[in-house]
Specification:
The protein is α+β, with helices and mostly antiparallel strands. The chain contains six helices and three strands, in the order H-H-H-E-H-H-E-E-H. Strand 2 and strand 3 form a beta hairpin. It is globular.
Length: 106
């Protein structure tokens, strides 16, 4: 991970609601329950629909979308469109790389 990538992650984590979203997505079944529209064959286990994330955070649809975009652009989230829904889940590989970056570089 480069310093520039780490800085983007730090920026994404500089907002409590975005941190809360990542924390909720760590255990999606606990925080959101079963996702009715996601099919195992789609290969996106743990993905949560934007509307469910918005409901849980209590913020507007536009702010939710903006926050999810920031987390995705930083590499902390990955997305998949399935039918009419867009699902988000944590990008565990990027999170591992960020942990390693902090351990080794800071």
């Amino acid at each position: 991970m480069t310093d520039e990538q780490a800085v983007e992650i730090f920026k994404a984590l500089s907002n409590q609601t975005r941190v809360n979203i990542l924390q909720m997505l760590k255990n999606p079944n606990v925080h959101f329950g079963t996702q009715a529209h996601i099919v195992k064959e789609e290969g996106f286990e743990g993905g949560i629909c934007v509307s469910d994330i918005r409901s849980k955070t209590g913020i507007s649809q536009s702010t939710t979308s903006q926050y999810l975009a920031i987390l995705q652009q930083s590499g902390l989230l990955e997305t998949k469109r399935i039918g009419q829904w867009t699902y988000y889940r944590r990008n565990e590989e990027t999170i591992r790389q960020f942990e390693q970056y902090i351990r080794e570089r800071l």
